[in-house]
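Section 5.1 Outputs to date
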Amino acid sequence: YAWFSPTGPHPVRRETCDADTAFSKLMTTFESVMSRANFVELSQAEVAALGGDHPQFDVKTRTPLESYETIRIFYRGCGTQTVKLATALGLRSKEIPQDSFDDVIVFVRFKQPGDMQRRRFLRGNDKLPGGAQPGSVMVKSFRSIARIELPMLLPDVQIVMSRKDAVLLGGPAVLGGIPIALNLLPALSVILIVIGAYLGFSGQVTQDQLMKAVGALSVVIGAGAFMWRQFSNYSYRKLKYQRKVADNIYFKNINNDAGVFETLISAAEDQEVKEVILAYHSLLTAGPAAHAGELDRRIENWLKATFQVDADFEVGDALSKLEGLGFLTQKDGKIAAVPLPDALARLDTLWDRLYDFTRAPHVNAAA
Protein backbone atom coordinates (compact mmCIF):
# COMPACT_ATOMS: atom_id res chain seq x y z
CA TYR A 1 0.00 0.00 0.00
CA ALA A 2 2.96 2.34 0.56
CA TRP A 3 3.25 2.85 -3.22
CA PHE A 4 -0.36 4.06 -3.42
CA SER A 5 -0.66 5.98 -0.17
CA PRO A 6 -1.59 9.68 -0.67
CA THR A 7 1.37 10.55 1.55
CA GLY A 8 3.62 7.79 0.19
CA PRO A 9 6.63 7.90 -2.17
CA HIS A 10 7.23 10.71 -4.62
CA PRO A 11 5.48 10.16 -8.01
CA VAL A 12 8.83 9.64 -9.75
CA ARG A 13 9.67 6.78 -7.37
CA ARG A 14 6.16 5.36 -7.79
CA GLU A 15 6.78 5.02 -11.53
CA THR A 16 9.70 2.66 -10.87
CA CYS A 17 7.34 -0.13 -9.82
CA ASP A 18 4.79 -2.03 -11.90
CA ALA A 19 1.70 -0.15 -10.71
CA ASP A 20 -0.82 -2.59 -12.19
CA THR A 21 0.82 -5.64 -10.61
CA ALA A 22 1.24 -3.89 -7.27
CA PHE A 23 -2.38 -2.71 -7.28
CA SER A 24 -3.60 -6.20 -8.17
CA LYS A 25 -1.69 -7.67 -5.21
CA LEU A 26 -3.04 -4.93 -2.95
CA MET A 27 -6.64 -5.67 -3.97
CA THR A 28 -6.19 -9.43 -3.55
CA THR A 29 -4.82 -9.04 -0.03
CA PHE A 30 -7.39 -6.38 0.84
CA GLU A 31 -10.31 -8.58 -0.29
CA SER A 32 -8.92 -11.50 1.73
CA VAL A 33 -8.68 -9.44 4.92
CA MET A 34 -12.17 -7.97 4.39
CA SER A 35 -13.60 -11.45 3.95
CA ARG A 36 -11.88 -12.77 7.08
CA ALA A 37 -13.15 -9.74 9.02
CA ASN A 38 -16.71 -10.61 7.85
CA PHE A 39 -17.27 -7.45 5.79
CA VAL A 40 -19.80 -7.40 2.94
CA GLU A 41 -19.30 -5.29 -0.19
CA LEU A 42 -21.92 -2.95 -1.61
CA SER A 43 -22.85 -3.71 -5.21
CA GLN A 44 -21.51 -1.46 -7.95
CA ALA A 45 -25.09 -0.43 -8.77
CA GLU A 46 -25.51 0.88 -5.22
CA VAL A 47 -22.17 2.71 -5.42
CA ALA A 48 -23.12 4.30 -8.75
CA ALA A 49 -26.36 5.60 -7.22
CA LEU A 50 -24.58 7.57 -4.49
CA GLY A 51 -25.53 11.24 -4.39
CA GLY A 52 -28.74 13.27 -4.40
CA ASP A 53 -30.88 14.67 -1.58
CA HIS A 54 -30.34 13.60 2.02
CA PRO A 55 -33.36 14.32 4.23
CA GLN A 56 -31.49 13.76 7.47
CA PHE A 57 -29.25 16.77 6.76
CA ASP A 58 -31.55 18.71 4.44
CA VAL A 59 -28.67 18.81 1.97
CA LYS A 60 -27.88 17.72 -1.58
CA THR A 61 -24.50 16.45 -2.70
CA ARG A 62 -22.86 15.71 -6.02
CA THR A 63 -20.38 12.85 -6.12
CA PRO A 64 -17.69 13.28 -8.82
CA LEU A 65 -17.63 9.60 -9.82
CA GLU A 66 -15.72 10.44 -13.00
CA SER A 67 -12.64 11.29 -10.92
CA TYR A 68 -12.30 7.81 -9.41
CA GLU A 69 -10.84 4.76 -11.06
CA THR A 70 -12.05 2.41 -8.31
CA ILE A 71 -14.71 2.85 -5.63
CA ARG A 72 -15.41 -0.03 -3.25
CA ILE A 73 -17.47 0.23 -0.07
CA PHE A 74 -17.63 -2.55 2.52
CA TYR A 75 -19.84 -2.77 5.57
CA ARG A 76 -20.33 -5.01 8.59
CA GLY A 77 -23.38 -5.22 10.82
CA CYS A 78 -26.54 -3.97 9.13
CA GLY A 79 -29.50 -2.72 11.17
CA THR A 80 -32.32 -0.20 10.96
CA GLN A 81 -32.58 3.27 12.42
CA THR A 82 -35.30 5.91 12.26
CA VAL A 83 -34.62 9.19 10.42
CA LYS A 84 -36.81 12.29 10.69
CA LEU A 85 -37.80 13.68 7.29
CA ALA A 86 -38.89 17.31 7.23
CA THR A 87 -42.08 18.09 5.29
CA ALA A 88 -44.18 21.19 4.62
CA LEU A 89 -41.12 23.49 4.55
CA GLY A 90 -39.93 22.16 7.88
CA LEU A 91 -43.19 22.78 9.76
CA ARG A 92 -43.82 19.06 10.14
CA SER A 93 -41.74 15.92 10.06
CA LYS A 94 -42.23 12.22 9.57
CA GLU A 95 -40.10 9.28 10.57
CA ILE A 96 -38.76 6.86 7.96
CA PRO A 97 -36.67 3.69 8.50
CA GLN A 98 -33.17 3.60 7.04
CA ASP A 99 -30.44 0.97 6.84
CA SER A 100 -27.59 1.58 9.26
CA PHE A 101 -24.14 -0.03 9.16
CA ASP A 102 -22.01 -0.64 12.26
CA ASP A 103 -18.69 -0.43 10.39
CA VAL A 104 -17.96 0.98 6.92
CA ILE A 105 -14.71 0.85 4.93
CA VAL A 106 -14.33 3.12 1.88
CA PHE A 107 -11.64 2.18 -0.66
CA VAL A 108 -11.05 4.78 -3.41
CA ARG A 109 -8.39 4.99 -6.11
CA PHE A 110 -8.10 8.24 -8.07
CA LYS A 111 -7.67 8.10 -11.81
CA GLN A 112 -4.16 8.17 -13.15
CA PRO A 113 -2.77 11.28 -14.92
CA GLY A 114 -3.57 10.02 -18.44
CA ASP A 115 -7.22 9.42 -17.52
CA MET A 116 -7.96 12.64 -15.67
CA GLN A 117 -9.07 14.69 -18.73
CA ARG A 118 -7.85 17.79 -16.93
CA ARG A 119 -10.26 17.07 -14.05
CA ARG A 120 -13.24 19.15 -15.09
CA PHE A 121 -14.99 18.47 -11.81
CA LEU A 122 -12.38 20.37 -9.78
CA ARG A 123 -13.70 23.75 -10.97
CA GLY A 124 -10.28 24.95 -12.03
CA ASN A 125 -8.46 23.47 -9.04
CA ASP A 126 -5.92 20.83 -10.12
CA LYS A 127 -5.33 19.51 -6.59
CA LEU A 128 -6.81 16.31 -5.23
CA PRO A 129 -8.25 16.10 -1.68
CA GLY A 130 -5.64 15.89 1.03
CA GLY A 131 -2.85 16.64 -1.45
CA ALA A 132 -3.17 13.17 -2.97
CA GLN A 133 -1.45 12.26 -6.23
CA PRO A 134 -3.32 10.90 -9.31
CA GLY A 135 -3.38 7.11 -9.08
CA SER A 136 -3.11 7.11 -5.28
CA VAL A 137 -5.47 5.20 -2.98
CA MET A 138 -7.45 6.52 0.00
CA VAL A 139 -8.84 4.10 2.59
CA LYS A 140 -11.15 5.34 5.34
CA SER A 141 -12.91 3.61 8.23
CA PHE A 142 -16.19 4.83 9.74
CA ARG A 143 -18.63 3.66 12.40
CA SER A 144 -22.44 3.93 12.75
CA ILE A 145 -23.20 5.16 9.23
CA ALA A 146 -26.72 5.36 7.79
CA ARG A 147 -27.19 4.47 4.12
CA ILE A 148 -28.10 8.08 3.24
CA GLU A 149 -24.74 9.19 4.67
CA LEU A 150 -22.64 6.99 2.35
CA PRO A 151 -22.17 9.64 -0.40
CA MET A 152 -20.68 12.02 2.17
CA LEU A 153 -17.89 9.55 2.95
CA LEU A 154 -16.25 9.86 -0.47
CA PRO A 155 -13.45 12.42 -0.88
CA ASP A 156 -14.16 15.68 -2.73
CA VAL A 157 -17.96 15.43 -2.46
CA GLN A 158 -19.57 18.74 -3.48
CA ILE A 159 -22.46 20.47 -1.70
CA VAL A 160 -24.97 21.77 -4.26
CA MET A 161 -28.25 23.68 -4.04
CA SER A 162 -31.34 21.56 -3.53
CA ARG A 163 -34.78 22.32 -4.98
CA LYS A 164 -36.00 23.69 -1.67
CA ASP A 165 -33.02 26.03 -1.48
CA ALA A 166 -33.65 27.15 -5.03
CA VAL A 167 -37.24 28.02 -4.12
CA LEU A 168 -36.38 29.73 -0.83
CA LEU A 169 -33.51 31.76 -2.30
CA GLY A 170 -34.57 32.10 -5.92
CA GLY A 171 -38.21 33.02 -5.26
CA PRO A 172 -37.52 36.20 -3.29
CA ALA A 173 -34.68 37.01 -5.67
CA VAL A 174 -37.01 36.90 -8.69
CA LEU A 175 -39.86 38.78 -6.96
CA GLY A 176 -37.56 41.44 -5.59
CA GLY A 177 -35.38 41.64 -8.67
CA ILE A 178 -38.15 42.34 -11.20
CA PRO A 179 -38.93 45.93 -10.02
CA ILE A 180 -35.23 46.61 -9.54
CA ALA A 181 -34.47 45.38 -13.07
CA LEU A 182 -37.29 47.55 -14.50
CA ASN A 183 -35.83 50.65 -12.87
CA LEU A 184 -32.19 49.74 -13.43
CA LEU A 185 -32.04 50.36 -17.21
CA PRO A 186 -33.56 53.89 -17.07
CA ALA A 187 -31.35 54.68 -14.08
CA LEU A 188 -28.24 53.62 -15.95
CA SER A 189 -29.21 55.72 -18.97
CA VAL A 190 -29.61 58.82 -16.77
CA ILE A 191 -26.26 58.22 -15.12
CA LEU A 192 -24.55 57.78 -18.50
CA ILE A 193 -26.08 61.05 -19.77
CA VAL A 194 -24.82 62.96 -16.73
CA ILE A 195 -21.36 61.40 -17.00
CA GLY A 196 -21.25 62.29 -20.71
CA ALA A 197 -22.21 65.88 -19.94
CA TYR A 198 -19.44 66.22 -17.37
CA LEU A 199 -16.93 64.78 -19.83
CA GLY A 200 -18.02 67.19 -22.52
CA PHE A 201 -19.68 64.70 -24.87
CA SER A 202 -23.15 66.27 -24.52
CA GLY A 203 -24.85 69.45 -23.29
CA GLN A 204 -24.83 70.95 -19.83
CA VAL A 205 -26.18 69.18 -16.77
CA THR A 206 -29.30 70.72 -15.32
CA GLN A 207 -30.36 70.56 -11.69
CA ASP A 208 -33.21 68.26 -12.64
CA GLN A 209 -30.85 65.85 -14.43
CA LEU A 210 -28.50 65.89 -11.48
CA MET A 211 -31.33 64.97 -9.08
CA LYS A 212 -32.40 62.17 -11.43
CA ALA A 213 -28.80 60.91 -11.56
CA VAL A 214 -28.60 60.82 -7.77
CA GLY A 215 -31.86 58.86 -7.64
CA ALA A 216 -30.64 56.53 -10.38
CA LEU A 217 -27.39 55.97 -8.51
CA SER A 218 -29.35 54.96 -5.41
CA VAL A 219 -31.23 52.43 -7.55
CA VAL A 220 -27.94 50.95 -8.80
CA ILE A 221 -26.56 50.77 -5.25
CA GLY A 222 -29.77 49.12 -4.06
CA ALA A 223 -29.56 46.56 -6.86
CA GLY A 224 -25.97 45.76 -5.93
CA ALA A 225 -26.84 45.44 -2.26
CA PHE A 226 -29.75 43.13 -3.14
CA MET A 227 -27.51 40.91 -5.27
CA TRP A 228 -24.87 40.79 -2.55
CA ARG A 229 -27.45 39.86 0.06
CA GLN A 230 -28.74 36.99 -2.07
CA PHE A 231 -25.20 35.75 -2.68
CA SER A 232 -24.44 35.98 1.06
CA ASN A 233 -27.58 34.00 1.87
CA TYR A 234 -26.53 31.29 -0.58
CA SER A 235 -22.96 31.19 0.78
CA TYR A 236 -24.21 31.02 4.38
CA ARG A 237 -26.59 28.17 3.58
CA LYS A 238 -23.84 26.26 1.77
CA LEU A 239 -21.41 26.72 4.66
CA LYS A 240 -24.10 25.57 7.09
CA TYR A 241 -24.59 22.37 5.10
CA GLN A 242 -20.85 21.78 4.85
CA ARG A 243 -20.54 22.14 8.61
CA LYS A 244 -23.36 19.64 9.17
CA VAL A 245 -21.64 17.14 6.91
CA ALA A 246 -18.18 17.76 8.41
CA ASP A 247 -19.39 17.57 12.02
CA ASN A 248 -21.29 14.35 11.38
CA ILE A 249 -18.47 12.57 9.53
CA TYR A 250 -15.72 13.90 11.81
CA PHE A 251 -17.06 12.13 14.88
CA LYS A 252 -17.69 8.89 12.96
CA ASN A 253 -14.29 8.60 11.29
CA ILE A 254 -12.23 5.87 12.99
CA ASN A 255 -9.03 5.62 10.94
CA ASN A 256 -7.46 6.60 7.62
CA ASP A 257 -5.13 5.14 5.00
CA ALA A 258 -2.35 2.91 6.42
CA GLY A 259 -3.91 2.97 9.89
CA VAL A 260 -7.04 1.30 8.49
CA PHE A 261 -5.08 -1.86 7.74
CA GLU A 262 -4.07 -2.25 11.36
CA THR A 263 -7.73 -1.91 12.34
CA LEU A 264 -8.82 -4.40 9.68
CA ILE A 265 -6.20 -7.01 10.57
CA SER A 266 -7.14 -6.71 14.24
CA ALA A 267 -10.83 -7.07 13.32
CA ALA A 268 -10.09 -10.14 11.19
CA GLU A 269 -8.16 -11.75 14.03
CA ASP A 270 -11.01 -10.98 16.45
CA GLN A 271 -13.56 -12.58 14.12
CA GLU A 272 -11.47 -15.73 13.69
CA VAL A 273 -11.00 -16.08 17.47
CA LYS A 274 -14.74 -15.66 17.99
CA GLU A 275 -15.44 -18.39 15.40
CA VAL A 276 -13.12 -20.80 17.20
CA ILE A 277 -14.58 -20.03 20.63
CA LEU A 278 -18.19 -20.40 19.42
CA ALA A 279 -17.50 -23.75 17.75
CA TYR A 280 -15.53 -25.12 20.69
CA HIS A 281 -18.11 -23.88 23.20
CA SER A 282 -20.96 -25.49 21.28
CA LEU A 283 -19.20 -28.86 20.99
CA LEU A 284 -18.20 -28.75 24.65
CA THR A 285 -21.56 -27.72 26.16
CA ALA A 286 -24.13 -29.11 23.72
CA GLY A 287 -22.25 -32.29 22.89
CA PRO A 288 -20.74 -33.74 19.72
CA ALA A 289 -22.26 -32.93 16.32
CA ALA A 290 -23.04 -35.52 13.67
CA HIS A 291 -21.73 -33.29 10.89
CA ALA A 292 -20.67 -29.71 10.15
CA GLY A 293 -24.19 -28.67 9.07
CA GLU A 294 -25.64 -29.62 12.45
CA LEU A 295 -22.98 -27.61 14.27
CA ASP A 296 -23.59 -24.66 11.93
CA ARG A 297 -27.35 -24.59 12.62
CA ARG A 298 -26.77 -25.06 16.34
CA ILE A 299 -24.47 -22.02 16.58
CA GLU A 300 -26.68 -19.81 14.39
CA ASN A 301 -29.75 -20.66 16.49
CA TRP A 302 -27.81 -19.90 19.69
CA LEU A 303 -26.74 -16.49 18.33
CA LYS A 304 -30.33 -15.74 17.35
CA ALA A 305 -31.73 -16.75 20.74
CA THR A 306 -29.01 -15.03 22.79
CA PHE A 307 -28.33 -11.81 20.84
CA GLN A 308 -31.29 -11.60 18.39
CA VAL A 309 -28.79 -11.57 15.52
CA ASP A 310 -29.14 -13.43 12.22
CA ALA A 311 -25.63 -14.60 11.32
CA ASP A 312 -24.19 -16.85 8.63
CA PHE A 313 -21.65 -18.77 10.67
CA GLU A 314 -18.59 -20.04 8.76
CA VAL A 315 -18.47 -23.48 10.32
CA GLY A 316 -15.93 -24.89 7.88
CA ASP A 317 -13.42 -22.19 8.71
CA ALA A 318 -13.98 -22.68 12.45
CA LEU A 319 -13.54 -26.46 12.27
CA SER A 320 -10.33 -26.18 10.27
CA LYS A 321 -8.87 -23.84 12.91
CA LEU A 322 -9.95 -26.16 15.74
CA GLU A 323 -8.32 -29.07 13.95
CA GLY A 324 -5.13 -27.08 13.48
CA LEU A 325 -5.05 -26.31 17.19
CA GLY A 326 -5.60 -29.96 18.04
CA PHE A 327 -8.95 -29.30 19.75
CA LEU A 328 -11.05 -31.80 17.74
CA THR A 329 -11.60 -35.47 18.37
CA GLN A 330 -14.05 -38.21 17.42
CA LYS A 331 -16.72 -39.58 19.76
CA ASP A 332 -19.13 -42.27 18.53
CA GLY A 333 -18.39 -41.23 14.96
CA LYS A 334 -19.31 -37.60 15.66
CA ILE A 335 -17.33 -34.36 15.76
CA ALA A 336 -16.34 -33.65 19.37
CA ALA A 337 -14.08 -31.29 21.29
CA VAL A 338 -11.27 -32.29 23.63
CA PRO A 339 -11.91 -31.57 27.34
CA LEU A 340 -11.17 -28.07 28.60
CA PRO A 341 -8.05 -29.02 30.65
CA ASP A 342 -6.53 -30.68 27.58
CA ALA A 343 -7.34 -27.62 25.47
CA LEU A 344 -5.76 -25.27 28.01
CA ALA A 345 -2.63 -27.42 28.17
CA ARG A 346 -2.45 -27.41 24.39
CA LEU A 347 -2.77 -23.60 24.31
CA ASP A 348 -0.04 -23.27 26.92
CA THR A 349 2.28 -25.40 24.82
CA LEU A 350 1.54 -23.43 21.67
CA TRP A 351 2.12 -20.17 23.49
CA ASP A 352 5.47 -21.30 24.88
CA ARG A 353 6.61 -22.33 21.39
CA LEU A 354 5.91 -18.92 19.86
CA TYR A 355 9.35 -17.79 20.88
CA ASP A 356 11.92 -20.30 22.15
CA PHE A 357 15.09 -18.46 23.04
CA THR A 358 16.94 -21.65 24.00
CA ARG A 359 16.76 -22.88 20.40
CA ALA A 360 17.83 -19.56 18.88
CA PRO A 361 21.47 -19.34 17.72
CA HIS A 362 23.67 -17.52 20.21
CA VAL A 363 25.23 -14.30 18.93
CA ASN A 364 28.38 -12.80 20.33
CA ALA A 365 27.36 -9.47 21.90
CA ALA A 366 30.79 -8.01 21.22
CA ALA A 367 30.40 -8.75 17.52
